[in-house]
Amino acid sequence: MGINKQQYQNILNELDGKATLVAVSKTKPAEDILELYNLGQKDFGENYVQELTQKYEQLPKDIRWHFIGHLQSNKVKYIAPFVHLIHGVDSFNLLKEINKQAAKNNRVIDCLLQIHIATEETKFGLDSNELETIIHSGISDLKNIQICGLMGMASFSDNMNLVRSEFKNLKALFDMSAPAFNIQQSTFNILSMGMSADYKIALEEGSNMIRIGSLLFGSRTYNK
Ligand SMILES: *Cc1c(COP(=O)(O)O)cnc(C)c1O
Asked: What is the DSSP string of 90-148?
């Protein structure tokens, strides 16, 4: 219970304004979020739609809510009115649904495409061919979404050389995407990579958005 203020300060000092910290508050109570909010934190990340909408109702309206989980098309409508950034988009159909719900809410929703960088089979995401296919499948017709960059999760591994090489691959793909796929560079500028166990490596490899849960809020009692 309660947040680790010292750890929060340490991370902010390390970031030194060069990357955005998304505080991942899944499974944690609203009081913990408010405690961090009162220290100035505005970006929070959640993985589950129902949990996110409940917290949105309860908490200050200037919080920027990041959806970082695997989003199902039929649930987009619940978060479309307020979500700040959707990190885990991995299909064109999902993009179309986000576009449709964003239009209903008269807004443009910012999205990151999730790239599969881990050697594990379990993680979601696109490979570079699928990325190209999505980008060439007519996203410029989707006026109510903006593709702002890429997101990825490294292998859950103690092998930091492996983790580093996965982040390197993602950074390389991020750097070549805008010119290769004719995306406007100025709006394609977010590279979301790095979690509690590997954020230092992610920052060294060029991340500009890290997603930190357990270091700030303590370990979660169940793994979601
Ligand atoms: C849970 C989660 C995080 C935060 O994980 P920690 O190891 O607790 O920092 C970051 N990104 C995603 C996609 C997550 O699901």
From this structure: --HHHHHHHHHHHHHTT--EEEEEEE--SSSSSS--B-HHHHHHHHTTTGGG-TTEEEE
How big is the chain, counted in residues?
224
Residue 222 pLDDT:
59
Q: Is 115 in the pocket of ligand 1 (CB under 6 A)?
A: no
Segments making up each domain of the chain, as ranges: 5-10+20-215
For domain 5-10+20-215, give the CATH superfamily: Alanine racemase (3.20.20.10)
CA atoms of 43 and 14, how far apart (whole Å) = 17
What local confidence, expressed as pLDDT, does residue 9 receive? 97
Can you tell me which atom of ligand 1 is nearest the CA of 199?
9
pLDDT of 224 reads 47
Q: Hey, which of 43, 66, 211, 221 would you mutate to test ligand 1's pocket, going by the most ligand atoms within 8 Å of its Cβ?
A: 211
- Ligand 1 atom with the smallest distance to the CA of 87 is 13
Element (H, E) at 176: helix 160-181
pLDDT digits (tens, 9 = 90+) for 156-188: 999 999 999 999 999 999 999 988 888 888 999
**C-alpha 179 – ligand 1 centre gap (Å):** 30
Residue ranges in the chain modelled with pLDDT below 70: 1, 122-123, 222-224
pLDDT (tens digit, 9 = 90+) per residue, 20-30? Answer: 999 999 999 99
68 lines ligand 1 (CB under 6 A): yes
